[in-house]
Structure formats: C-alpha cells, structure tokens
TrEMBL record:
Residues 18-113 form the Cytochrome c domain. Residues 1-20 form the signal peptide. PROSITE patterns: CYTC. Keywords: Heme, Iron, Metal-binding, Signal. Pfam families: PSCyt1 (PF07635), PSCyt2 (PF07583), PSD1 (PF07587). This is Planctomycete cytochrome C. One of its GO terms (molecular function) is heme binding.
Length: 883
C-alpha cells in the first residue's frame, strides 16, 4: 500500500516538477479543478451543502461539516475527505476518482493544504473563477507572435513556426511531394473532386518548367471554381447542423425550404464573403433588414436567408409542440452557436456551472437571453409559422387577377358538367317506374344532409341515380366517354394553364424576430438544475463573464434604433469586432483541420480544459491575427496555408519520424487523408463522366427501395408504405453532387452513413469521426451504386479509348489516379479484364441501375469484364485516400 502511494505520488509530482512547479501542490491550481468537477454540485454550488460541507475553499474544508474537519493539514491519513474518496463513498453516485487524483489530494494535504493566495471571506460572483481559470489560453486576447528565426530557408511564416518546433525535437521537413500528388491533394482539398487527366498532365508540364508559378496558378484556379463553394460549404453545413428535416420526433417532418440556406452558404464562400460578415448575417441578418419583411430586395433576401443557421437545430414542435420540445430546440441552437463560434462546450452549463471551464450557469442563460426574443416561448411559432414569403405585393396582386380568370373557366366547366349530369340524370330517371320519376329527381337534387328517409329509400332503390356525379359520368354513357369527357378535360387543362402563369410563392426558412413592445419581450431566467418548470433568477443578455476583464460583455436589452430588440445584432457585432478571443482562433483551426486532417487544436469544438492543447499555440494566434488582418478572407487563408512547405511535403513515413512523433503533431510529413463520404461519391461520378455540375436548387430526393435500403429516388410508396413498383425518372438529378442530396435525419443515404457522414441526430458536427470498419469494405464490394459507378466508368473508358484493351487500361488508370499504370499493373489489369470477360460470356448479366428502370437485355461481356477492373480501381486505397 505504501509503495503504491509513493508510486502515485511520483507520477503526480514528476510532471509538476517538469512544469516548474517545484513539486508544490496548491488548492487553486491542482485540487479545486478536481473538486469542482466531482463535488461542487452537492457541496457548495447553489447553496447545496450536503452533510454541512462546502468544498469550494480550503478554509471551508478546514471548517468541515457534520463529520468535523474534512482535512487535517500535514496529516493526510487523518483527513476525512481523503478517506471518503479512497473508499469510493464519494463522490456519491459517480465513478471513483482516478488514482492520480486521489494521490494528488493526498500529497496536497501532506504538504500542508497550501493555497496560492489568501482566500476571500465570502464567495460572491466576483469570485466565481480563480485567476488560474481566467488565465486559460483560449480566452486570452489574440496576439500576433513574432515569427521565429529558424536555420532553414523559409518563404512562408507558417513554416517558421513549424520548423522551430521540429528543430527542438530533432525533426525536419520531408521532401516535397511529386507533382501528381500535389495536384490531386489541391483538387480534393479545394473542390472535393479529382483533377481530370488533362488537368493533371497540364499541371505536371507547367510544374516542370516553373514549379512555384504552376503551383500558385493551380491554387488560384481551384479557388475560383464553383466547386470550391460546394466543397467548403459542406464543411460549414456540418458545423451548422444542416438538415432537410426537423428531426426530434419519428415523423421527421421535411423542411422544404432549408435548401436556400445551403445555397446561401455555397454562394457566400464562392464570393469569398468576409467571414465576419458571414457570421453577422447568420446570427442577425433579419435585424439588418427593415420591418416588415415584405417586398424584399435581393440583398434583404440574402441576409434573411442567412438566419437559416439559427433554424438548423432539430425542431419537433411542428409535430409535438410542448415546452420540452421548445426548450430542446433552443438548447440545441445554443450548442450550435457555441461550438461554431466559441469552440467551447457552453451547453454543459445548462444545468449547473461548467465542471471544468470558467463558464457559469448564469452565463449559459445570458447567452440564451440574446436569442430569447426571437424564439419567444410565450408566443411560440412552429417551423411552418416561421417561414418568410418571397412573394411581393405586386406579384400577389397579379396572381389574384389570374385566379379570377381561372375561376371563370372553373365556373364554365362546372356549368358544362351540370349540363352533362342533367342529361344523364334524365336518361336514368326515364328508366325508373313512372310513379317514382318525379320523386327520384327531387331526391337526387336535394342536398345530402337534408334528404328525408323517403329520399334515401328511393335512391337506394335506384343506385345508378344515387351514384351519379361528375366523377362517375363516364360509367353511364358511351357518348360521354368519347365526347363529354374530352370536353371537360380540355376545360380543366385550360384553367390549369392559366393558373400556371401565376407567380410561384417561395419561402425562406428564417429566424426572424417580430417587433414587440418592451413590456412584452420575454424574460430569460436561470432554470434550477436546468428544469424548465423551476425558473429562478432573471438574467440579462451578455457574453461570458470570464471575458469581462478584457472587453464589454453586456448586450443591450433593447436597441433604440430598431423595431426588434437588436440583441442578436449587437452580439454579432461584438463577436466579430476583431478583439474577441475565440472566433478567429476557432475558424482558423477548422480550416487547418480540413487541410491537414488534424487541427492545431485537435478538438475543434472544445477549446476548454477537456479539449486537447494546441500543438502550435503561437502559430494558431499568428494565423488568427493574419486572417483578420487580411479582411477575414477564407480564400487568402487557404492560399497562405497551401503555399507552405508544411502542406507540400510528402506523406511517406520513416521509422525515425515515427519514433519521435508517432502522431505527426509536429508535421514533419503530410498526413494521408481518407475521402469523406460525399467526396467519395462525387469522385465516383466525376471519373465516370456522370457528374451533373448544376449548382443549387431543391434537394435530390431519397427514398427506400424494395430491399429497405435508402437510395436516391422519388418516393412512390403507397399510404401503407408499400412499394408500388413505379419508376419516376429524375432526369439526371441523381448525378448531382452529394451536397445537394436530401439530408433527412431519419434516412441518410447508405454510403454517407457508412463512411461517417453525420445524420445530425446531434445538433451539429464540428469534427467528423474517421472510422475503419468492415461495412465500408463490404459496401465498396457489394453495393448496387458501386456496380453502377464501375459500369459507367467502363462505358466512358470504351468511348474514349476505343476497343484496344491496353489503351482501355491506360485510360481507366488515368481517370482514377491521374497517372499511368506501371508495367506490372498494366499486365495484371489486362489479365483480369480478359478473365472476367470470359466469365460473363458463360454467365450473362445485366447492367446495374439503382435509381432507374431495370435493363431488359444482357450486357456485353467485354463491358462487364472492363467494369470488373473499374470496380477494383474505385474500391482501392489509392482511390479512397489522398496522399
């Protein structure tokens, strides 16, 4: 037992000594974080002092509770607190403290239970956080560190920061990657698509003559491509939690107009809209536009569309509108805001003070108060009630005039229908007994709810009269079938044609705050333990109180120059003022992560105590300051990062680098990155020549096939959910980029789900996992879409290379990998195609069409043989990964 304690003490004290703490353990720096995370909830927070014990200060521990003093300085073995945590009795209802934490408490008591500074007499709000918590790196003002002086020749400041760390660890940059690798890396990073063989060849030729010029021109060309906005729009939509459905309930109601926010994101990134403006519009675009939101200009439409960001959280109130669903929507929205712009887990303070970071529960509700007037739980609007119409008064008036004309045609058709009904009725009445004829006629013409028992009896006697209607006329008279039906059909088509000229009414899924009298603006209260039924103290809108020492954190409750409260606009302006410590750091880190596979902070949504520390903190601050200095331009940031030696390195590993830096956090080589789910599908479409480059618009629908798999296609199931077997063509829409495929939370496309695309069952996704699991290989081998992609690639190869097998293999390789096959690859590929062709001669098969009508005849064996090779290429690691 003694030796174990000594060992644990060594494990704790060794890093303390290494950090310059000289082995001295203090309450504020070492013990309070443990107690705050595990014990404050029951012993001090919100007046809760179970057992009479408050553990928030050392002197409270010395005073103790019902069991007497909790600690005896210098006598760890006699300290009640240590006994309780060693036995596991405390913390009650939680896992036992880690052995290192227990050892740390023991050593602290043994050293005399020291504090860094005198403790306050009382714990008021000004003592909510310690100096150590306020000194946390991510909430310090962004500095512009001096670029390190290094021995290696550098032209990009990024490389100086990286090389400085490498040199301190006996590392250096790897050689530059070859030109084909570089152009593929750039193309996938900036557009999410592989380069065409011709683009790759042109780059290599230019690179041989003038490497730097060719490289810079390639970056510029790719950044100017519309595909750039689609690629980087996908990244932001992850962070925003984009979905085309409401989620929350099993109904998962469709969001018909959410796609307009998606298109706003893509267009904004393609225009290189300054990112601070991009943020402001998403938080408060509606407050930048005059009220009421009618007859909107193009600029106003753009700003209101941007607020779709605040409508991305799951919202089940369209199906189940209650307080719980409302609160869940607000909580998820705050989580999206905090992870996207703060990189902090502010949502952890919804029920109590944050256990690890300097964020109080009141802070959480202060942030909620910024958005409360827009949500307004006192007059909650369900999702469809929040739609903003784009129809102008002029268009609406024009539509009303057109409707008047259409109704005239409807009236004429109704009169003609009545004429035909009367004609048929008289023929049927004539067939009745003479004594019944007049009464039968009267019974038929009498309003249904006013019919007497005698009327009903008579109609029952003559059912052909009873069933007579405009919809059943064709059953009564062959003349009607050939003449009358055509007349009515033509009249209906004329009315429909007139209505088709009416201006189409479209909507924005927006977050717009309605003007309210000051006394009607909903108040925000701290909920006791997060319980919506237990509101406590009223709070005003504001930023994190821990930032109060360096900036203004109060948000005005009501703007004097706006009909709305203006809270979100004031908050957005403060967040983007260039002095907020978090926003620029978070965005720069997200961009870095997308280029290198890991962020400088590898927990992009947690810059707090539980997140990873930055691998290069000075570089992160320099990049953040440079990003703002360059006008918050993402494209300039991309160019800066991609131009660095750090980015252009080879990804080849060697034993010495792996030994020194096994996770490559010092970036002495490039990381090999797997294609994301959407990029993988888009690449299949691109190399097969099927990719539809259409930008924007309504999402491509998804549905279930007969096997219950989620596929691209129009839903043709009946009311009972059964497949009708009907096929409805999508007219090429099925080949659009994956960012346009409908993102229903309950029905993610199989390939997307298998390759780690988020279904947004959580509010958002700041960092996708990268798993390696057997279903991925099985999907690449067996999925119907994979067979279709392979066949499409084979068809393209046949068209472009002709019948010569050697040329076919050459072209397939160029399309798939941007390079020619080696001699051994060429020979093995040709042998495979020949063997597979012979197989299909004796085992005929049809082409695969997942979202189309099935083939009726067998396919050419030569095509299927070539498709087998193409399937192997598309399933290979060389296709799946980018060096």
């Amino acid at each position: 037992m003694h030796s174990l304690a000594v060992s644990l003490s060594f494990l704790v004290l060794a890093p303390l000594a290494a950090s310059g703490a000289s082995g001295t353990i203090t309450f504020e720096k070492h013990i309070r974080p443990i107690l705050k995370a595990q014990c404050f909830h029951c012993h001090g927070e919100e007046g809760e002092v179970k057992g009479g014990l408050d553990v928030r200060l050392t002197r409270f521990l010395l005073k103790g509770g019902d069991e007497g003093p909790a600690i005896v300085p210098g006598k760890a073995a006699e300290s009640h607190l240590l006994k309780m945590v060693q036995s596991g009795e405390m913390p009650k209802g939680k896992s036992k403290l880690k052995a290192t934490e227990i050892a740390l408490i023991e050593q602290w008591i043994a050293q005399g239970a020291k504090t860094i500074r005198p403790e306050p007499e009382t714990l008021g709000p000004e003592h909510a956080f310690t100096d150590e918590e306020r000194a946390w790196w991510s909430i310090q003002p962004i500095q512009r560190p001096k670029v390190p002086a290094v021995k290696v020749a550098i032209t990009n400041p990024i490389d100086a920061f990286i090389a400085d760390k490498q040199a301190a660890n006996q590392l250096s940059f790897s050689p530059e990657a070859d030109p084909v690798t570089l152009i593929r890396r750039l193309s996938f990073d900036l557009t999410g698509l592989p380069p065409t063989p011709e683009e790759a060849q042109a780059f290599v030729a230019a690179y041989v003559k003038a490497p730097q010029q060719a490289y810079d021109e390639a970056i510029t060309r790719l950044l100017a491509s519309p595909a750039y906005g689609e690629r980087w729009g996908r990244h932001w939509l992850d962070i925003a939690g984009y979905a085309d459905s409401d989620g929350y309930t099993d109904k998962d109601l469709e969001r018909k107009w959410a796609y307009k926010y998606r298109d706003y994101v893509i267009n904004s990134l393609n225009k290189d809209k300054p990112f601070d403006q991009f943020v402001r519009e998403q938080i408060a675009g509606d407050e930048m536009v005059p009220q009421p939101h009618k007859n909107l200009s193009a600029e106003a439409i753009e700003k209101i569309t941007a607020t779709g960001f605040l409508r991305m959280a799951a919202d089940g109130t369209g199906a189940m509108n209650d307080k719980v669903a409302q609160n869940s929507t607000i909580a998820d929205t705050i989580k999206i805001v905090s992870t996207a712009f703060y990189g902090m887990t502010i949502g952890c303070a919804q029920c109590h003070d944050h256990r690890y970071d300097p964020i109080s529960q009141a802070d959480y509700y202060r942030l909620r108060a910024v958005f409360e007037p827009g949500f307004n739980t006192t007059k909650w609007r369900v999702p469809n009630g929040r739609l903003v119409s784009l129809l102008t008064d002029e268009e609406r008036a024009a539509g009303d005039k057109i409707e008047v004309e259409a109704k005239k045609l409807d009236a004429a058709r109704a009169a003609k229908t009545e004429e035909f009904i009367t004609e048929v009725l008289e023929k049927e009445v004539a067939k009745a007994e003479e004594k019944d004829r007049e009464s039968l006629r009267t019974a038929y013409r009498t309003e249904v709810k006013k019919r007497t028992p005698e009327h009903l009896a008579l109609l029952k006697k003559y059912p052909r009269v009873a069933k007579l209607s405009s919809g059943s006329l064709y059953l009564y008279d062959t003349t009607y079938k050939t003449k009358h039906a055509d007349t009515l059909k033509k009249m209906a088509e004329e009315a429909a044609a007139v209505r088709a000229t009416k201006p189409k009414e479209e909507f924005l899924q927006a977050f717009d705050e309605l003007p309210l009298k000051p006394e009607l603006v909903p108040a925000t209260f701290v909920f006791h333990r997060g319980d919506i039924e237990q509101p406590k103290d009223k709070v005003k809108p504001g930023d994190l109180t821990v930032l109060a020492g360096q900036r203004e954190i109060e948000v005005p409750e009501k703007a004097s120059n706006l009909p709305t409260t203006g809270r979100r606009l004031a908050f957005a302006n403060s967040l983007t003022d260039g002095k907020h410590p978090l926003l620029a750091r978070v965005i720069v880190n997200q961009v870095w992560k997308r280029h290198f596979g890991k962020g400088i902070v590898n927990t992009p949504d947690d810059f707090g105590q539980l997140g990873e520390r930055p691998s290069h903190p000075e570089l992160l601050d320099w990049l953040a300051s440079e990003f703002m200095r360059q006008g918050w331009s993402l494209k300039k940031l991309h160019h800066l990062i991609l131009s660095s030696t750090t980015y252009r390195q080879s990804s080849l590993r060697d034993a010495e680098r792996e030994r020194i830096d096994p996770d490559n956090r010092l970036l002495s080589r490039m990381n090999v990155l797997r294609l994301e789910a959407e990029t993988l599908r888009d690449s299949f479409l691109a190399v097969s020549g099927k990719l539809n480059p259409k930008l924007g618009g309504q999402p491509v629908p998804v549905t279930f096939n007969e096997e219950g798999q989620i596929v691209i296609g129009i839903d043709t199931r009946d009311a009972a959910g059964r497949q009708t077997g009907k096929f409805v063509t999508l007219e090429g829409e099925e080949y659009r980029r994956s960012i346009y495929v409908q993102a229903r939370r309950s029905t993610p496309l199989e390939m997307f789900a298998t390759f780690d695309a988020p279904a947004m069952t959580d509010p958002n996704c700041a960092s996708r996992p990268v798993t390696t699991v057997s279903p991925q290989s099985l999907l690449l081998m067996n999925n119907g879409y994979m067979r279709e992609h392979a066949q499409d690639l084979a068809l393209r190869v046949q068209r472009e290379a002709g019948p010569d097998l050697e040329k076919q293999v050459q072209r397939a390789w160029e399309l798939s990998f941007s390079r020619s096959p080696s001699m051994s690859d060429q020979l093995e590929a040709m042998a495979l195609v020949k063997a597979q062709t012979e197989h299909y001669k004796s085992h005929p098969a049809k082409l695969e069409h997942v979202a189309a009508a099935p083939e009726k005849k067998d396919a050419d064996p030569a095509l299927l043989g070539l498709a087998a090779l193409c399937h192997a290429l598309l399933s290979s690691n060389a296709f799946l990964y980018v060096d």
